[in-house]
Amino acid sequence: MAESTGAIYTAAGANLAIALAKFIGAYLTGSSAMLAEGAHSVVDTTNQLLLLFGLKRAKKPADARHPFGYGREVYFYAFIVALFIFLGGGLFAIYEGAHKIQHPEPPADATIFGHAVSGFWINVAILGFSIAAEGYSCFVALRSFQAEKEGRSTISAIRRSKDPALFTILVEDVAALIGLAIAMVGVVAAQILDWPALDGWSSVGIGLVLVGMALFLMIETHGLLIGEAADPDVVSAIHEAVRGEPAVRHINEVLTQHLGPSDILVNVSLDVDDALPGGDIEQLVGRLDGRLKALNHEVKRVFIEIQASGQGTESRVAQPTT
User: Fold this and answer.
1) 49 Cβ partners below 8 Å, 6+ apart?
2) pLDDT digits (tens, 9 = 90+) for 271-302
3) Distance between CA 252 and CA 239 in Å, rounded?
4) 239: which residues sit within 8 A by CB, 6+ positions away?
5) How many alpha carbons fall within 13 Å on the CB side of residue 118?
6) For residue 269, what are the β-bridge partners?
7) How far apart are CA 155 and CA 70, in angstroms?
8) How far apart are CA 319 and CA 228, in angstroms?
9) What is the pTM (predicted TM-score) of this model?
10) Phi then psi for 54, rounded to 5 degrees?
11) 268 phi, psi to nearest 5 deg
12) Which residues, 6 or more positions from 278, have their beta carbon under 8 angstroms from its beta carbon?
């Protein structure tokens, strides 16, 4: 998860700088879109700190109370992050935009070091800086995410990813860039058309983008939080490895579940040759345990049940729940 951590630190630093710049711009010019964007950046910065905390908690070793470890902590905090984007970013931006539509005001000029500066150009300069900083953050997150894509489309890779910290940062950055583009269009159009209410409408647009992204993240992290099977390719490889044992007559069931982004639990129900001595069964179980863990470094726990055919459900390849 080193890729996740690096992308999170980059995003946190960028968003903190962007938030300060936006709030300064909102204070100097009274721009509603700039204020909404500032709140969005604060929410994003807080979210990145929450994800880092979740990643740290997920590394705690298993104990008597949590014998399978704390890997799902990162799933919980990723869901909280999605909730924060929805409430702290999206709904606030919509509320602020609606207020500005009802009470439109042109951006106020500001005095900086004794010189009068147009509020419009202050907003444009800050938005330009924000787009550059957010673009770099998005580039880092996208580059880190490439390792997980494996030739799939970005949406497909996100839906099959088990590392919510990484895809949350990527989705946040994309939402931020879209929001900044909307804010820039709103500020420029309001100036050209002399229609201050467009600043408020751009804030509403930003809010709708954030709400949509938040709902998408909630759906994706919800599946991980309640328990998702390993990737179908991993499950298929487990089937092939087990079938390679001559003493295995039938695979009753293969169950997998992600206990964390890099922690897979495997439970296999097998029907073996009835004539197989107890010592040979122990050796079979030991071989399969080692083989499945060597097959994929994310397989940390393997449980093998010896049952007559039909006691488990039919052998199947589990599919992701999202």
Assistant:
1) 12
2) 988 888 888 889 999 999 999 999 999 999 99
3) 11
4) 251, 254, 315, 317
5) 7
6) 253, 305
7) 27
8) 8
9) 0.74
10) -65, -40
11) -120, 130
12) none
Structure tokens at 28: 């100097």
The pLDDT of residue 321 is 38
Backbone angles phi, psi at 301, to 5 degrees: -135, 130
Which residues of the chain fall below pLDDT 70? 1-4, 32-33, 107-114, 147-151, 310-322
Here the tokens at position 269 are 């129900």
In contact, 47 and 84? CB cutoff 8 Å? yes
65: exposed, middle or buried (C-beta count within 10 Å: 0-12, 13-18, 19+)? exposed
Distance CA 30, CA 7 (A): 32
Q: Which two tokens stand for residue 138?
A: 């998005």
Name the residue type at position 268: V
Query: Quick one: tokens of 271?
Result: 């029907």
Q: What is the DSSP letter of 312?
A: S
Contact 119, 110 (CB under 8 A): yes
